[in-house]
Specification:
Organism: Dyella soli
Strand content: under 5%
Transmembrane segments: 81-103
Structural class: mainly alpha
Protein name: DUF1772 domain-containing protein
Radius of gyration: 17 Å
Low-confidence stretches: none
Keywords: Membrane, Transmembrane, Transmembrane helix
Number of helices: 5
Number of domains: 1
Amino acid sequence: MNVTAAMTLGFAAIVSRWYLMLIAGKAWGGITRAHPEYAKALYASGLDMAFYGIGPLNWTPLFRQPVPADIRVTIRRLRRVVVISGLLGVAALAYVPATFLYAGRGG
């Protein structure tokens, strides 16, 4: 197992989370103006993000509720960013600790 690859993957996961927050914040104004009720369901509150560690978007309205036609492109972009960020995060959670445990055991 490669420590450099583990550090790179961890860094990529952190950057993808930051990018998710940036893209979600950028899309917030347009979604709120076009469909305030959908935006209220889509975006998590600041308290939820701070205390529960969840991301800026709620999964149910993002992936399971019907999307209004005029914001469909924005929601597709948000879905892609959420999926990629989630996959990088899961990969980092699996690979980084395994690498350091392997290196710590003398491997």
